[in-house]
Write a structure and sequence with these properties.
Layout: H1 2-16, E1 21-28, E2 31-38, E3 48-52, E4 58-64, E5 70-73, E6 81-88, E7 94-102, E8 105-106, E9 112-113, H2 120-144
Antiparallel strand pairs: 1-2, 2-5, 3-4, 3-6, 6-7, 7-8, 7-9
Helix pairs in contact: 1-2
């Protein structure tokens, strides 16, 4: 039990070092409005919003998030399909949205938030971490004998 608590405690500082970025989209007066803030609620002021190329590298910059945490934008003329959007507030402070485009408009009901962020991975690693800590404790106790 103590090893499990130790293993979970070791994973917590990694999560606390960076604030996640949370974004949402809506249409406002015919323009797409992106709202982005840190998980603390503070706006991600100055974050660059860009379209990603098919290979995942940065593409066209669409603008920067203002002091209120918003950016109103018009997407460039793109064909129907999926477009990846990145909100880049710096290392550890990024959000990704996959936008399904139909007839030049984003279908907001089908937007995928954070496709590159795998929160479940933290919990998948925890058992392995507990096993490693257990092994370290066992080796240490054998050395002390």
């Amino acid at each position: 039990m103590a090893i499990t608590v130790l293993g979970l405690a070791l994973t917590q500082p990694l999560q606390a070092e960076a604030h996640g970025v949370e974004s949402s989209l809506r249409y406002l007066d015919g323009q797409l409005e992106l709202t982005s803030s840190f998980s603390t609620g503070e706006p991600v002021e100055g974050a660059v919003v860009r379209i990603l190329k098919a290979d995942g590298t940065p593409g066209e910059e669409l603008g920067r998030i203002d002091a209120g945490g918003r950016l109103q934008m018009t997407l460039p003329d793109l064909g129907d399909g999926l477009v990846d959007l990145q909100v880049d507030g710096g290392p550890g402070h990024r959000d990704y949205l996959t936008l399904p485009l139909q007839k030049g408009r984003v279908n907001l009901n089908e937007v995928v938030m954070n496709p590159r962020h795998h929160r479940g991975l933290d919990w998948a690693i925890a058992p392995a971490l507990v096993g490693v800590v257990g092994l370290m404790v066992r080796v240490r106790s054998l050395r002390q004998r």
